[in-house]
Amino acid sequence: MHPTFHDLKDASVYVTGGGSGIGAALTDAFLSQGAKVAFIGREDASAFCDAMEQKHGTRPLFLQGDITDTDHLKATMDQAVAAHGPLRCLINNAANDQRHSTAEVTPDFWDWMISVNLKAYFFACQHAAALMAKNGGSIINFSSISYMMGNAGYPIYTTANSGINGMTRSLAREFGPDNIRVNAVAPGWVLTQKQKDLWVTEEALAAHIDRQCLKTPLAPDDITGACLFMASDASKMMTGQAMVIDGGVVTTG
Prior knowledge:
Blueprint: E1 12-16, H1 21-32, E2 36-41, H2 46-56, E3 61-64, H3 70-84, E4 87-92, H4 107-132, E5 137-142, H5 146-149, H6 155-175, E6 180-187, H7 193-198, H8 202-211, H9 221-231, E7 242-245
Parallel strand pairs: 1-2, 1-4, 2-3, 4-5, 5-6, 6-7
Helix pairs in contact: 1-9, 3-4, 4-6
Domain Ketoreductase: 11-189
Protein name: 3-oxoacyl-[acyl-carrier-protein] reductase FabG
Pfam family, one: adh_short_C2
């Protein structure tokens, strides 16, 4: 159960990748607050929207598309505003942590990975700033502890994660005069279905849990509370920050 942030009731929230994994948990959590949620995703999310409507009595607005299509991404954000009112919160959640080695990277693969994991974040922030300029709002960018750990196996992904942190700090400074807050959240290894299907093994998970202070695997729901807080006026003087939620693998400060 989440605490209730009363100011999120009827708030217009836009989530990238909001139909699966952590994104689906975010859609669920914001709907539970009474927020109006729109999300973009590549795959059909009708069944998920049906389930959310049955659970909450409110249907999220699913806008199908690819976040690397910048014009379409901005158009779906405009659709969300038309349907739900002025944008209160943008959550840049969609990402791709496809495994790769430096030796196998081609220019095309580099461009695609950066387009998904960094470029789309920037242009969503750019458009959100225009949409929020009158009323203010909160932007939440998903990073990861992977770059803090210096993990191998996906160097473009960790490069983008580090870039997201730098971008968050700069945009917080730039957007602050319009009362737009920009923060980042850096999850640890969250056991989404995709992670379980592709990369979780008993040995790898045991080794990672051994690094955690808290010896419980992270689930998508473990990330949502912090995002509700960062979207709410409960954090109204918090901006330019990165919040780590990883069970205690890395330390900050």
